[in-house]
Structure formats: C-alpha cells, structure tokens
Model the fold of this input.
Amino acid sequence: MPTPLRAALLAAWGTAFLSEAEPLDRVVAMVEGTDEPHLVVSDPFQPPDDLEEGLTDLRRRGLVGLRLALPVPGDLLGLTGPPAMNRAALAAGEAVVGCAAPGAVPPGGSVPSLVPDVTAFGTPGDQGHCVTWRETPASPAWPDVPTLGQADRELKEALREAAEAISRVRTVPGRADRREAASRARSGSALIRLPDLAGARAQGLADRALQALSIVAAAQDDDGAALTSFGVQTRGFALAAVERAARRALVAATGACLGPVGR
Done:
C-alpha cells in the first residue's frame, strides 16, 4: 500500500483544529505540505470547498476529532461501515472518519468521513499532486483499534519475528545488502510530523510505523532474495505481519490526538 501520509496528517492535525489545540492556518499548512491546495467535496452538486472551509464546516457540524482508517483487503482497519464507506476507503487505502461528542449522534445516525482522491501531474522527478477529499457517511461506532502501548508491542514483536524468520532463509549473496540499503534510504523520507497534542510517545511510534512501511515497500520492489519457494513464502508472511503491525501503529499514534473522545 502507498505510505498513507495524507489521511494520517488530516486525522492528527484535523483533530488538533477541531479540539482547538492548533490554529486553522497551521493545520492546513501541515496537511497540504507540498501539494496543491486541497479541496473538500461534501455535496457533489455544489462547488468544492478549500480545506479551510471544509474543516470549519466539520467543526460547525459538531465534530470534535477525526480518526484514521487504513484498510486493506481482508483487514478493514478503522472502518465500521456502512458498505459504501468501506468500499470507498478500501479503494483509496486510507480515509478519515469524523468523531462526534458523546451522545451527539442520534440512533441510526452517521458521521462524515473523508476519502482522498489523489491525482499526480508533471514529469517524473518533478511531480505535483491534486488532492480532493470526498465526503461519505460513516458509522459513528468506534472500531477495534489498539492503544499506543498495544501497537508499540505489536510492531516491535512483528519486526523481531520478521528479522529472525528472514535470517533463517537462504538468500542470493549481495541482494540482501542492496535491499537493506534501499530500505534505509526510503525510510528516511517517510517520517511524519504530528501536532504537540499527540505527545512524544505517539510521535515516536508514528515515525517507526512509517519506517516499517517503507522497509516493506522496499522489500517488495523485487521478488526477494530467497532461493527456495519456502523462503519466498516465509519472507512474504514476515513482511505481511510487519505491514499489518505498522498500519495499526500509525492508527494508534494519530488516535492519541483524540484523547478521551476516542473511547
């Protein structure tokens, strides 16, 4: 899956704005980064809002935070329906779901979610991105996601087990070194800046989660260095476990901004 920076940034910084911990201009700058100005489509029959207007509208509608969803086939992490929302988020690989104050959503009601539609333009090496967040009604039910402590332990365990499993697999000389170097190079550009509201522990976990996702992506750039089919399978299982733990860690890290609202 692509490194899910945009939804993670919007979940964390959007929550900081909705909870009045950060000013709107700083939040927008941190979410958009080097992208073209983001757009928010809450009504397909109306002109889109810019991100400032979109976030202000979410506050006006009673949201007090945004939580991150990072689904993949077979693991709808952060999603609780309905099916249309799940499909949209699964297609994008990332989304944010609104959090209302306790008791603010009537029985059978929904909260807004935002799914990014990203379009790249320009030449390779000099690309820009246009991002449109499309609103879809989502269930207000809280998903089964880990706490910071749980996610931290899961990620450490997955990385340890992956290292042990891969070390037992016979590899082609030289290729493992090149892959490890590529992993280190890619992990250096994958860090994320969370608002102070998240805390240092969440910041560190988010950094390690994104580094792990970059390592998995780099390892998947080739067919691996294993000499046997068993080795290829072992490597694949190990990488899948790291990827899952890293996604859960990033959800937990950005969720730290929600505080007691998230439970």
